[in-house]
Write a structure and sequence with these properties.
five-stranded antiparallel sheet; 0% helix; globular
């Protein structure tokens, strides 16, 4: 799900096709087939008014390369294209955030189990490792301009997080006492706050808030 000044946008992967639906404050649009040929959950981010980007894991099981496309302000779509040119491969669904107008930050878990990122500013800047170690998917959100926060489930079921400003660590990966059997989910409702949601090992849903 993504939000911009005009409303909400939801993308789902159904039958290996990526579908988009939007809410403008009054009602929902119909589902729009945006094409694609992939697997798992898509990532979506609104990075300017009426401009949306979608990223999906290429259809090679749950290991492959990320493919992306964008919708311009005039409503036209770019073609699906592989993100990166070094043959990078990833495990599981991507995460995508926009911390400023015209910029995107994409995250995924590499085959080395580390978290990797690629920054968009008039073009993808190239993949780089952020460290960490996980077999789960990464949860990402942005609590303000130039800031993003990342979370994942460790192999021992605990959650680790790291906060970044302008792409640089403000601290290393930190472990939290919360335990989960599933990848967590994070969202920022207001600037400067982060809400982390996860299912505990008792199957109850929990929320933690950073202010």
């Amino acid at each position: 799900m993504a939000r911009d000044a005009r409303g909400l946008k939801i993308a789902v992967n159904w039958n290996t096709r990526l579908w988009l639906r939007e809410f403008d404050g009054h009602g929902w649009s119909g589902w729009v087939d945006t094409g694609g040929n992939g697997t798992g959950k898509p990532a979506i981010a609104a990075w300017a008014p009426d401009e949306v980007s979608l990223v999906l894991l290429g259809y090679q099981g749950f290991v492959g390369r990320y493919h992306g496309r964008g919708r311009r302000a005039d409503g036209s779509w770019t073609s699906w294209a592989v993100i990166g040119d070094g043959g990078e491969q990833f495990r599981g669904a991507p995460a995508l955030v926009s911390t400023r107008d015209g910029e995107l930050d994409l995250f995924g878990v590499g085959l080395d189990s580390a978290v990797w990122t690629n920054h968009w500013a008039d073009g993808w800047q190239g993949w780089r490792s952020l460290g960490g170690e996980t077999q789960s998917e990464v949860a990402a959100t942005s609590s303000g301009p130039g800031r993003y926060e990342l979370f994942y489930q460790r192999g021992d079921y605990e959650i680790e997080s790291a906060f970044f400003v302008n792409g640089e660590h403000t601290s290393g990966w930190e472990r939290h006492p919360s335990e989960t059997h599933f990848a967590p989910f994070a969202v920022s409702h207001t600037e400067g706050t982060v809400d982390l949601y996860h299912y505990g090992t008792d199957d109850n849903l929990y929320r933690r808030r950073w202010i």
